[in-house]
């Protein structure tokens, strides 16, 4: 539908936005090629497919380029984009209808802003050593191990011993909810969905991967280049998540980070610290979009 243009919206020429759109599509195609190929062959990869099996965004959805708020795309009124949800036509141009998006998704925007802001404000807690993955298989019965296509690196009994020698302190509800029943009482924290905003902290690998999830939940508000930066970091974090896991992934060319040893703990923490810093950069970039005056205008008053 046609609408009054947003004030002082920068305009990209057709050549400019088409080049960005093409570059984004090529970036997504490269990043998802392995997953798409395996899907066509009916195969699975325990590391690289996680961002598609656990999160809901498909490669096709990820491939669709969005410029973010306050950007007008010249000459796009006759394109498919003009009919996309939360877009509007302004003369011969198309732009994101920020007001329509915030009316429809205001509660989600408010929740995500609060969660990302709270997480970024806390110091990173290091030293969990990825034991959440071990807790997911602790005293597991045969057939209940999550990744049944790969064996446990130390076997079940030795895996259980590693868990019993360590203090587990997982703060992430969406990891904790996959703990085996015997592992649940061993966790120093009992996170719930309701306590998520109060507990999440930037040292958590799963919270770092979830920055990608929150970017996709805010589509099309978040510029697609930022979403892909979140995707790339999430994929790197996922690799460490599984390198430090109890699984034997040598068949996939993956060397373990042996967190049951002192050297493995040190290696894990060094990478964990770097990921916490990088994930906070992305959190603040997303918050910068959410704090755009055009976005804030459509938001409800802060809760008190």
TrEMBL record:
Chain intervals for the UniProt region annotation (Disordered): 1-42
Extent of Basic and acidic residues compositional bias: 13-33
Protein's name in the database: 3-methyladenine DNA glycosylase
Organism annotation: Knoellia sinensis KCTC 19936
Highest classification ranks of the organism: Bacteria, Bacillati, Actinomycetota, Actinomycetes, Micrococcales
